[in-house]
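User: Please fill in residues for this 176-position structure.
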């Protein structure tokens, strides 16, 4: 069964407030990071190899700077390489005065729900995670998705972007 395309759902959302998907703006930075040197396991880049390249203060700091440049007032979710990387990303945001919490699958589900409620309410501005919210997350106020990891999977990319594409009144677009 072929369903509507993302473009169709965005067009629908423009005509029906709170329904369909919102539009998006995509920003990318020039980078010397070469994913061609990464190996794969089960059809995906090996997280440990990515972490060696990406879990560095300069790279994480650049990610925070790009966020400040393009969408400093938006609620966001970052997709990190592994648990340690997600923690370093959240710490870097907090060091810059941006309330960000890292969440991972080892944490108590009640705590995760409380943090997500705080994100929805605007108490927390962002969440840094790894493979925790690629699907099933419904926090419609997320209007920025930041990829701090590489993926070979079109489905993973679309699912991750989808965390911010939910349309709601007053949400004009998602920043990726």
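Assistant: Residues filled in for all 176 positions:
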């Amino acid at each position: 069964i072929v369903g509507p395309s993302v473009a169709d759902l965005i067009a629908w959302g423009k005509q029906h407030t709170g329904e369909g998907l919102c539009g998006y703006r995509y920003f990318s930075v020039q980078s010397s990071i070469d994913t061609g040197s990464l190996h794969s396991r089960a059809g995906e880049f090996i997280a440990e190899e990515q972490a060696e390249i990406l879990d560095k203060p300069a790279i994480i700091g650049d990610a925070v700077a790009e966020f400040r440049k393009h969408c400093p007032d938006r609620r966001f979710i970052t997709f990190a390489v592994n648990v340690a990387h997600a923690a370093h990303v959240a710490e870097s945001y907090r060091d810059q005065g941006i309330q960000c919490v890292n969440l991972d699958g080892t944490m108590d589900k009640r705590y995760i729900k409380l943090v997500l409620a705080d994100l929805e309410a605007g108490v927390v501005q962002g969440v840094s995670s790894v493979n925790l919210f690629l699907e099933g997350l419904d926090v419609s106020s997320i209007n920025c998705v930041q990829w701090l990891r590489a993926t070979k999977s079109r489905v993973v990319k679309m699912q991750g972007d989808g965390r911010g594409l939910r349309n709601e009144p007053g949400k004009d677009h998602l920043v990726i």
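For context: The chain has a mean pLDDT of 90.
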